[in-house]
Amino acid sequence: MQTLAFIGFGEAGQAFAGSVAQPARVTGFDLKDRAAAMAGLGVEAAPDRGAALAGAGAVWCLVTADRAEAAARECAPHLAPGTLWFDGNSCSPGTKARAEGVIEAAGGRYVDVAIMAPVHPLRAAVPLLIAGRHAAAAEAALRGLGMQPTVVGGTVGQASTIKMLRSVMVKGIEALTAECVLAARTAGVEGKVLASLQKSDPGFDWTARSAYNLERMAAHGIRRAAEMREVAKTLAELGLPDRMAAATALWQDQLGALGVPMEDEGLDARADALLAALRG
Asked: Cα–chain-centroid distance for residue 56?
């Protein structure tokens, strides 16, 4: 692989570009101005999708979940035959199947990728699940980049299903944490509530995890909300209700849209900052 391209250069793109075993050339394109971040990581900032994808043997697509299918449509005409398209976006199996159709029709090789942990601090070592007809070739290419893929099936959607259903729990717990902690802080009983939770489940550091969950929602709530809307689609595709996923998306969106910086690591300070913004 002579050229690796990134479509979308946010948190995941930067984490990967700065830690993979780089090929001869790495390019990137993002709708936002990420030129400085790219330059700092040795990535050529392309002016458009075509320039970023020219000659690329593999592409990481790392946009927001609600843009994944559109990104495939916008990039497909610029792909060289046989290019591996690593769709690492958190999307429903149905969304990924449609993206697969677009990429394959253009001659590319689509790979369903699920990123199964936060990209920091692991970066290129983060666990990846991959699925699709080209999973074997994708596994070899990703290992060549120093990454850690595990093949979970030969059908697109098998990796994303695991990620989506895991997110029901992970992002749902974040949303429940915010509702519980912010209400308890408002009522002046957060210490007693957390002490009770700690006693019930002593193997879990409720205070530290609650502070972490608030930071995740404040910093990445909008992106997480987009993912949870894809989770809701996944549940609908399975013929099941999406009540918790839909509610989680609304709460993640609301807290993320506040734009509150989580500079203080303490739970009380983070809760107070969010409460002030909600009331403001």
From this structure: 23
